[in-house]
Amino acid sequence: MWTKRKIAKIILGGISIGLLANQFFNVSRLKIDNLTNRFLQYKGTNQEPNKVVVKDISLELPTTDIYLEADPIKRDSVKGAFQHAWSAYERDAFGFDEYHPISRTGSNLSRSKGIGYTIIDSLDTIQLMGLTEEYRRAREWIKSELTFEVDDKFNTFETTIRVLGGLLSSYYLSSNPFNQNIALHEPDALFLDLAADLGERLLSSFSTNSGLPLSYVNLKERLGIPDKDNGGFISTAEAASLQIEFKWLAELLEDPVYWTKSERVLQIIKDSPKMDGLTPIFIEYALQPSS
């Protein structure tokens, strides 16, 4: 039952919390202001390249490589956790894009067929951990089962960072001797060939007048598809997260089109209207084919 005494306690408690929050905000704001006042930016070429100056404090940055000793217990725990998750995926859903551990089933991110999201996305971790047998089985699946001739739409962003990025990472690590049983004397051309195939298909997502990529792409038809739910807009975060993969592919293939297309996105974002200095979370793209 609500009494006047209870109501008064609630009101006083709310006032106390408000005063404490205000005091905390003021103290935090004061600390931030003090730190801001102490920070000095670099003064052009007069600043020594290996020093950062914060008012009176001069911090020497290391000029040589730093080697930290491994923590075997933590390292082995992380590796064991990965092996536990991976073995379940191999057992129940190998080849599927996603794994559902409770139902112990797999599913794909398209209605037609998957393209090995989980396998390719995990392969560089398998290489880094030196898991020889897991690597052999995953590579064999990629070699014998993977195809991008799938007549369905795939998210441009997810496919770029997980599949294209995974293939490029594995290509690099395939000749990097973290594990002699996995590494080759030369990079494994299988991964670069597949990356080139996928990259060429993903380029069709950039078929807009502005140059911004469409949210989806039909890999078989090489056709960019807009996101109907976003009304002609694309996520700024997604459009601006393709550059590493596309630019590295351009470097490896010596084909500037991948660099040009992805760099154009950053220029559009840079030139877009800002509100209080902030770029909007969605940007409108034109759907007419670019000339």
Automatic annotation (TrEMBL):
One of its GO terms (biological process) is ERAD pathway. It holds the Pfam family Glyco_hydro_47. GO terms for molecular function: calcium ion binding; mannosyl-oligosaccharide 1,2-alpha-mannosidase activity. GO terms for cellular component: endoplasmic reticulum; membrane. SUPFAM superfamilies: Seven-hairpin glycosidases (SSF48225). Pathway: Protein modification; protein glycosylation. It comes from the Eukaryota. Its cofactor is Ca(2+). Its EC number is 3.2.1.-. It catalyses: N(4)-(alpha-D-Man-(1->2)-alpha-D-Man-(1->2)-alpha-D-Man-(1->3)-[alpha-D-Man-(1->3)-[alpha-D-Man-(1->2)-alpha-D-Man-(1->6)]-alpha-D-Man-(1->6)]-beta-D-Man-(1->4)-beta-D-GlcNAc-(1->4)-beta-D-GlcNAc)-L-asparaginyl-[protein] (N-glucan mannose isomer 8A1,2,3B1,3) + 3 H2O = N(4)-(alpha-D-Man-(1->3)-[alpha-D-Man-(1->3)-[alpha-D-Man-(1->6)]-alpha-D-Man-(1->6)]-beta-D-Man-(1->4)-beta-D-GlcNAc-(1->4)-beta-D-GlcNAc)-L-asparaginyl-[protein] (N-glucan mannose isomer 5A1,2) + 3 beta-D-mannose; N(4)-(alpha-D-Man-(1->2)-alpha-D-Man-(1->2)-alpha-D-Man-(1->3)-[alpha-D-Man-(1->2)-alpha-D-Man-(1->3)-[alpha-D-Man-(1->2)-alpha-D-Man-(1->6)]-alpha-D-Man-(1->6)]-beta-D-Man-(1->4)-beta-D-GlcNAc-(1->4)-beta-D-GlcNAc)-L-asparaginyl-[protein] (N-glucan mannose isomer 9A1,2,3B1,2,3) + 4 H2O = N(4)-(alpha-D-Man-(1->3)-[alpha-D-Man-(1->3)-[alpha-D-Man-(1->6)]-alpha-D-Man-(1->6)]-beta-D-Man-(1->4)-beta-D-GlcNAc-(1->4)-beta-D-GlcNAc)-L-asparaginyl-[protein] (N-glucan mannose isomer 5A1,2) + 4 beta-D-mannose. Gene3D superfamilies: 1.50.10.10. The keyword Calcium applies. Keywords: Calcium, Disulfide bond, Glycosidase, Hydrolase, Metal-binding. Transmembrane segments: none annotated. Belongs to the glycosyl hydrolase 47 family. PANTHER family: ENDOPLASMIC RETICULUM MANNOSYL-OLIGOSACCHARIDE 1,2-ALPHA-MANNOSIDASE, MANNOSYL-OLIGOSACCHARIDE ALPHA-1,2-MANNOSIDASE-RELATED. This is alpha-1,2-Mannosidase. The lineage of its organism: Eukaryota, Fungi, Dikarya, Basidiomycota, Wallemiomycotina.
